[in-house]
């Protein structure tokens, strides 16, 4: 296999300005636009030996390759987000040629147009709230417990203190979420992150995405900063603005990774 395939990053309404010249996609490729009936797909040419069906299945098991590809994919989507509201496609959405991309635009045109219209002028912000133990002054040396009863009393006090701190953090998380929900047009709440998998300290109490009009972004960010600065035992993380991944109804007529529109044969 020594041909070229088409890697698709996103679908957009017609761009009013071109992507910056220095934007590079996966495998260092230069993104360009494929047009069809009022829609544009932002694509780049990639080697079939790397992105063909069999090769791609193997590559998706390579964490190093996957990370590089995801970063390059995101770089193109971020550049688009500065120009418009793109509808990002799944990582490693690949078609045989430009005609295959056009057929995908034609098949999904009604849904693409409706989703782009719904998301126009909006961006996604991510907010995570973590409970973490606030730094405490070093306690004065306490005498060793004189009995088992005294030992248990101290242990109960420690447990109660931790439970109270967690309860306060949960209340702040609920208040923050309610305030941000009131400012957002749509919300997605995700399961709490597992700290062993995310390798992030603290207990994740809120993991949510908010759809916000661009003109209200400054107000939204200010609200996060205002409500997140009250308690040192709570950490609030804000990310964005992103393309509205969480609010796209679907990302392609065929959502499987791999080469679409024709078999590799």
UniProtKB/TrEMBL annotation:
InterPro entries: GvpL/GvpF. Keywords: Gas vesicle. It is found in: Gas vesicle. It comes from the Bacteria. It holds the Pfam family GvpL_GvpF. Belongs to the gas vesicle GvpF/GvpL family. This is GvpL/GvpF family gas vesicle protein. It comes from Streptomyces smyrnaeus. The lineage of its organism: Bacteria, Bacillati, Actinomycetota, Actinomycetes, Kitasatosporales.
């Amino acid at each position: 296999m020594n041909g070229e395939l088409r890697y698709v990053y996103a679908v957009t309404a017609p761009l009013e300005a071109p992507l910056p010249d220095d934007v590079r996609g996966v495998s260092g490729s230069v993104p360009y636009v494929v047009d069809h009936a009022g829609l544009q797909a932002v694509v780049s040419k990639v080697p079939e030996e790397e992105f063909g069906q069999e090769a791609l299945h193997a590559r998706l098991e390579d964490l190093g390759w996957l990370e590089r590809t995801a970063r390059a994919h995101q770089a193109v989507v971020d550049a688009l987000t500065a120009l418009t509201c793109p509808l990002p496609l799944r990582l490693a959405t690949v078609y045989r040629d430009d005609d295959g991309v056009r057929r995908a635009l034609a098949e999904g045109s009604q849904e693409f147009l409706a989703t782009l219209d719904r998301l126009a002028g909006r961006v996604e912000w991510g907010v995570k709230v973590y409970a973490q133990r606030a730094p405490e002054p070093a306690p004065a040396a306490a005498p060793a417990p004189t009995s088992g009863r005294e030992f248990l009393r101290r242990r109960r006090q420690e447990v109660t203190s931790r439970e109270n701190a967690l309860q306060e953090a949960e209340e702040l998380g609920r208040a923050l979420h309610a305030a941000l929900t009131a400012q957002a047009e749509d919300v997605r709440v995700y399961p709490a992150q597992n700290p062993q998998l995310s390798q992030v300290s603290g207990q994740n109490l809120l993991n949510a995405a908010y759809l916000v009009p661009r003109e209200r972004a400054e107000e939204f960010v200010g609200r996060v900063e205002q409500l997140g600065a009250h308690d040192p035992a709570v950490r609030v993380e804000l990310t964005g603005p992103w393309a509205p991944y969480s609010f796209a109804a679907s990302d392609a007529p065929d959502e499987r990774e791999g080469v679409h529109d024709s078999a590799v044969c």
